[in-house]
Structure formats: structure tokens, C-alpha cells
TrEMBL record:
The organism of origin for this protein: Candidula unifasciata
Lineage: Eukaryota, Metazoa, Spiralia, Lophotrochozoa, Mollusca
InterPro entries the UniProt entry points to: ConA-like_dom_sf (IPR013320), EAR (IPR009039), EPTP (IPR005492)
SUPFAM superfamilies xrefs: Concanavalin A-like lectins/glucanases
Record protein name field: Thrombospondin-type laminin G domain and EAR repeat-containing protein
Lineage top rank: taxon: Eukaryota
Length: 573
């Protein structure tokens, strides 16, 4: 026994014993399977055996017959095949300190006079701790109620999926050992359901997608009326999938309009037009059971403020109508997010006249006023894009700063939510080889448990490029979260041609990034936008979005130069 109890020479006063066996014939006599006995006297201290259909536990000469063994001080519990469970008090309490010096374990026979165990024995496992059967056995459920929605997140914790504000998942590592076989857990980092199999967490795949992306084929040519800078794909329960196109055309005499399309029968059809002023970006969000669509308007004159608008979905008329105007200055983007049950809206103000260092504003939804009110101002430098994301429950907000008025060599900033406000967390690192030139957008995505931030850099202007060589040919950068350093570090730089947007696509086991190139070294005509391993000949585009319709995948791209945008269909191998 001292070879097993190397750190403590006392038997645990709370322990569980797992026995996995098979008997072909019911034993006529008691057969002993496991025992701990004194080397000098050969007397048995603890033993477990079988008598017909009963489990027999012996301690201090007392015999307890049950129909796995669990000891907890004064009570012994037996669970057989995870179904039958019995508890009995001990006549003599199990000691806190039972020395194992000069003791030995015997497997298959307790003493010379007892019968040898006859059958197949797979495992005899001793575990310290009270009633470990809860780790190995599934819960007792009423089959008449169906499968239900109970999911075991990890050993010892069961939770019912609900809208409770208390999350059932911890961010600390969850061990998968032999005692956890069959346990199901949800990996909050990989966002996958996993099951413990022989000490290893394995992903649970339901109808796994084994397809491979071959190429993208033209599917639909869309007449948007004007050039488009952004597409927002969203879904309204019971109504289907929609796509909002941000028309960027400036019209001084009449008000410009942006189109909302409805996806049906594998194509987009015009559903509604909404008034905008050189729309730059759309964002769909919900507050409780209400649905909203916010647009960032650049406006007509950069020197004067304009209104960016929030539209609300009318459930009766099934249309969007104007709900609230927000005063903005050459707004480039709007981002919606929720923290602790409160809804927020961040607007990226690009410039006020010739001044690019102005405040971008975060608004908070007021339940009393039933509208968004100013919550916090953040100084930005030619802000172009906001991106909100979470890591292990912590909230981050990234701003892509593009232009100071003199140079595009500016830092983009990552903010961290603390004490109901945003504080600066990190500036995305730059150096002379991979300079952040005019960052216009950022995209957060995860692969396995790793968090990435892709930044699109569009233009190289300023003293660092006074000869104006390859102004549109820049390095766009992908950053990866270093959990040890707790910062995002450069992971990869990719050469792009005035990149203005990234889109992430996951097909089967493969991961793709699509970059929207707005230029081709300054030349017009059609240009190259690449997916890793693929190059697409497209018109100058500003945004890519994904629509998944059953087993089919479609890509929508926004043509910034004319009124012809396109829908592409993914072709699989």
C-alpha cells in the first residue's frame, strides 16, 4: 500500500471504489474481489466482495450486503449499474486516520479461505472523495418528459438552459479523467459541445460538415441604384433573412436612399427603401423583443453635423420606420452591443471639418426615456470602425483610427470595459516594416480557443511615404491574443490593395478570411480580392457578408464604384 500512498500513509476517510466486472455464473459462495489487509496478522481491514446478486462490504468485522462502493465517514453507499442505490450507516464510524503502514492490497481474493473471484475484471479504481458516482453516472431523468434541456457542463455541476443571468460555465480548465467518462461539457472558448472519452475531451459532431470549398460562382447581379459601402445581414424571427445595403452616393438636391432586401428562394428581392445621407454602415440589434436598424450617415457637408438614424421594426406593418436621430459628424460606423443587460450604441465620428481628432460617442439605452442617451465620449483620430467582442466574459471595444489630418500613420486603440465605462487597454503595435496605414476596419474571430483581430489598412499617406509610392498597397495585419501577456500581438501580415473590410468564413474544418480590396494599386477596372488559396476577380468592393441557406452558402459583396453589386455562391468539392 505504501507504493500507492506515496504522499500520505493514511487511508482516506472518504473514498469511492469503482469496480467494472462481468460474471457469467452467479457465485454460490461469497467471492472477494478487493481487500486491504495487515501484512503481519493477515487480518482484513477493508474488503469488497460478492454474494449472489449482492455487493458485500466488510469493515471491522462487520458485514454489509448491498445491491460501486462509496464511504463518507459514518455512511456507506453502494450504486450498481448507475441505477440501484443504497445507503446504510456503519456500526463503527470509519476512522479519520487509518494507517496503511505494513498493509497490502489484494485483488481477486481476500484471504486464503475465501473463494477466488471468477469472471471478467476490467478495473478496480480507488478514488478519494465522497460519492464519486455523481461523476460517472448520468442523472436520473423521467423519460416521459423527453430529452429535456439539461446539460452537464462538467463533473459535479448540472444546469438547465434558461435566460438566467447566471452563466453555468466557468472559464477555468475542466479536467477530463477516467472518472469523467461520459461527461458532457460546453467549451466556452471553442463554442463546441464536448464529451469526455478515455481522459480526452472530444468534440460532439452532429451531422458534421465534411465539405471543402472549391470556388465561388456568380449567382445574382443586384442593381442597388448607387455605390454601396456596407452590407448588414440580419434575421427577424418569423420574417426571414434580410440584407441592408448602405448607399454612399451624395445627392445635394434630393435625399439619398438605401435599400433593404429580403432573401427568399435563394435570391435577394427589394423589400424596402429607407432615407439616408451618404450611408456608411448599417447595424441590426434587438432590445428585449423589439428590433432596430441603425445607420451611420456621413452627411453632405463635413463641416456641419448630420443625423444618423435608428429605425424600428413595426411588427404589424412589417416595415422599418424612423425612431430616433443622433447628431453625428461624418459618421463612419455604428456598433451595437449589450453588457450586463444594458444596451449600448457606439458611433465612430470621423472628422469635424478639418479636425480629425474629435470625440466618438457611446450611447446607452434608457428604459425610462425609451431612447439612446449619451453615456461616454472617447477621443478618436479619424475613426472609421468600431468592433465589440468578448474574451472569457470580459468586454472589449476596438476602434480603427484612420487619419490624423496629416498622416495615416496612427494607432488603433483597444478599450476594456471596467466600472461601467471604457478605459484604454492597448494600442495595436506597429513597426517600420508593418505600419498600420489608415486602419478602416477590424474583425474579431476565433479558431479553436484562440482569439484573433484582423485589421484592414487602406492607404499610406504622410511623411513616411512622401514620394507617394504604392499608396494603396499596404500590409493588413492579423493580431492574436497572447493569454500569457494579456495583449494582442502581431500574428500575420498580408499584402492588400486598399483593404477596407475583412470577412470570416468557416466551412467544414477549414477557416477562410476574405478581404475587400477597394483599389488595385490605384488602377480602376476589375481587381483581385483574395481568399486564402483562392483569388476572385471582382469590381472594387467595400464589404463582404455571408448568408447560409440550408446547406448552401452565399457571399454578398458591396460594389463601391457603381450600382452593380453581386451575390456569389460557394461551390463545394
Amino acid at each position: 500500500a505504501n507504493k500507492i500512498f506515496t504522499r500520505c500513509l493514511y487511508f482516506p476517510f472518504e473514498f469511492s471504489l469503482f469496480l467494472t466486472f462481468k460474471q457469467y455464473v452467479v457465485p454460490r459462495r461469497e467471492e472477494c474481489l478487493f481487500s486491504l489487509f495487515q501484512d503481519t496478522t493477515m487480518s482484513s481491514l477493508i474488503s469488497v466482495g460478492f454474494s449472489k446478486d449482492r455487493v458485500v462490504f466488510r469493515y471491522k468485522g462487520q458485514r454489509y450486503r448491498f445491491k460501486i462502493i462509496s464511504m463518507a465517514a459514518e455512511v456507506v453507499t453502494v450504486t450498481r449499474d448507475c441505477r440501484q442505490r443504497r445507503r446504510r450507516p456503519l456500526a463503527t464510524a470509519f476512522p479519520d486516520l487509518l494507517p496503511v503502514v505494513n498493509t497490502s492490497f489484494s485483488i481477486g481474493r481476500c484471504k486464503q479461505s475465501s473463494s477466488v473471484f471468477q469472471g471478467l475484471l476490467k478495473s478496480v479504481i480507488l478514488v478519494p472523495g465522497r460519492d464519486a458516482s455523481v461523476h460517472a453516472c448520468p442523472p436520473e431523468m423521467d423519460l416521459a418528459q423527453g430529452l429535456g434541456n439539461i446539460v452537464r457542463t462538467f463533473p459535479g455541476l448540472w444546469t438547465v438552459c434558461s435566460r438566467s443571468s447566471l452563466t453555468p460555465f466557468y472559464t477555468t480548465p475542466v479536467m477530463c479523467e477516467w472518472t469523467d467518462v461520459g461527461n458532457i461539457a460546453f467549451d466556452v472558448y471553442a463554442r463546441k459541445l464536448k464529451v469526455c472519452v478515455n481522459g480526452v475531451w472530444r468534440e460532439v459532431k452532429v451531422s458534421p460538415d465534411k465539405r471543402k470549398l472549391d470556388y465561388l460562382l456568380p449567382h445574382q447581379l443586384l442593381d442597388t441604384g448607387q455605390g454601396v459601402l456596407d452590407i448588414e445581414v440580419f434575421e427577424i424571427p418569423g420574417e426571414g433573412t434580410f440584407a441592408a445595403y448602405a448607399s454612399a452616393g451624395l445627392q445635394t438636391s434630393v435625399q439619398s436612399r438605401s435599400n433593404i432586401y429580403h432573401w427568399a428562394d435563394s435570391k435577394l428581392t427589394l423589400y424596402q427603401t429607407l432615407p439616408t445621407q451618404s450611408a456608411q454602415a448599417w447595424k441590426f440589434f434587438s432590445i428585449r423583443n423589439q428590433f432596430f436598424l441603425a445607420v451611420a450617415n456621413y452627411g453632405i457637408n463635413p463641416s456641419i453635423p448630420s443625423n444618423s438614424t435608428i429605425f424600428k421594426w413595426n411588427k404589424v406593418r412589417k416595415k422599418f420606420h424612423k425612431y430616433q436621430d443622433i447628431v453625428t459628424y461624418t459618421a463612419r460606423d455604428v456598433e451595437a452591443f449589450e453588457i450586463n443587460g444594458h444596451s449600448y450604441l457606439a458611433v465612430a465620428n470621423h472628422a469635424q471639418g478639418d479636425n480629425n481628432q474629435i470625440d466618438s460617442i457611446v450611447y446607452k439605452w434608457s428604459s425610462r426615456e425609451r431612447q439612446f442617451l449619451e453615456h461616454q465620449r472617447l477621443l478618436t483620430i479619424g475613426a472609421y470602425d468600431w468592433t465589440h467582442f468578448t474574451v472569457d466574459g470580459y468586454h472589449f471595444l476596438a476602434v480603427a483610427n484612420a487619419f490624423s489630418g496629416l498622416t495615416t500613420l496612427v494607432f488603433s486603440v483597444l478599450y476594456f470595459w471596467q466600472n461601467s465605462s471604457w478605459i484604454q487597454f492597448q494600442t495595436l503595435e506597429v513597426d517600420t516594416l508593418n505600419t498600420a496605414y489608415c486602419s478602416v476596419t477590424s474583425l474579431h474571430f476565433t479558431i479553436n480557443n484562440d482569439h484573433y483581430l484582423a485589421v484592414a489598412n487602406a492607404y499610406n499617406y504622410g511623411s513616411q511615404n512622401y514620394q507617394e509610392i504604392d499608396s494603396y498597397r499596404t500590409n493588413s495585419t492579423i493580431y492574436k491574443l497572447d493569454r500569457d501577456k494579456r495583449v494582442f500581438t502581431r500574428y500575420q501580415s498580408i499584402c492588400t490593395n486598399s483593404a477596407v473590410d475583412w470577412e470570416y468564413l468557416h466551412v467544414g474544418d477549414d477557416h477562410y478570411l476574405i478581404v475587400s480590396n477597394a483599389q488595385n494599386g490605384g488602377a480602376g477596372d476589375r481587381l483581385l480580392t483574395f481568399v486564402p488559396s483562392h483569388y476572385l476577380h471582382t469590381l472594387p468592393n467595400a464589404d463582404f457578408e455571408v448568408i447560409k441557406d440550408g446547406s448552401d452558402i452565399y457571399l454578398l459583396y458591396a460594389n463601391a464604384k457603381n450600382a452593380k453589386s453581386e451575390v456569389l455562391r460557394v461551390k463545394f468539392l
